[in-house]
Each structure stands twice: as structure tokens, then as C-alpha cells.
Amino acid sequence: MKMVNLNGDLKKQNEYLDQLLRAPKTTSILHQGSPEELEITGYVRSKWKTFFTWIGITLTLGILRLVLYWYPHWLLLATHSPSALEQAEKLLVRQNFQGNHTIYYVKTINTLDWTYF
């Protein structure tokens, strides 16, 4: 992913963010070069990956599910495919601390429909 200097130009910032949201299989890197770097990737559920993952869970008598419970980002990778951030159902947030330690967060995106309000 290329870095773009957008300091001060609001129009360029909005165009860049729109392009980033619509780009397929994008990864957004926040605070690049700082000690706490964040990498965000969007994912959508893949029916085939989910099907084969559950077959594996059944064949291992639930042991695979236990391992995937301990490492939720592995479960995300096993059941979802990368997508544009605009279409993503889940986000994988990778937080890197000075290149020494990495923490993964899996977050579900909730969409609000204002027709009910």
C-alpha cells in the first residue's frame, strides 16, 4: 500500500478515503512508523470456507473449534475472505507494538437501518 501525504487538503483526504473504502481487498495502516501501528483489513463470510471449516471441526470432534476459540483471528481467516472495507462484515485489526508484539482484534460491523427509527 502506498503512503499519501494529505496534510491540509480536505478534498484530497475525502477522495482518498472514498477510494480506500471501495478498493477490493484493502488494508488500511494507521499511525505508520509510530510505535503503535494499526493495520485494518475487511472480511466477508465465505460459505465454502465456513462449510469446510465446520467439516474439519466435526472430524476433529470439536478440538479444532477449541483452537479457533483461543485464536479468533484464525477462525476469521478460516471462514471469511478479504473484501473492501465498504462491504466488510468483520474487521481484523492488527496492532503492532514496535515490531516486538502483535495483538489481533476481530470486530463485527453493525449496520444501522434508519427506516426503523
Automatic annotation (TrEMBL):
GO molecular function list: ATP binding; ATPase-coupled monoatomic cation transmembrane transporter activity; metal ion binding
Transmembrane portions of the chain: 51-71
Membrane topology reported for the UniProt record: Multi-pass membrane protein
EC number: 7.2.2.-
Record keywords: ATP-binding, Magnesium, Membrane, Metal-binding, Nucleotide-binding, Translocase, Transmembrane, Transmembrane helix
Catalyses which reaction(s): ATP + H2O = ADP + phosphate + H(+)
One term under GO cellular component: membrane
InterPro entries, per database record: P5A-ATPase_N (IPR047819)
Name of the protein in question: Cation-transporting ATPase
Class in the EC hierarchy, top level: translocase
Subcellular location per the Swiss-Prot or TrEMBL entry: Membrane
Source superkingdom: Eukaryota
Every P5B-type ATPase N-terminal domain range: 36-109
Native organism: Megaselia scalaris
Family as reported in the entry's similarity comment: Belongs to the cation transport ATPase (P-type) (TC 3.A.3) family. Type V subfamily.
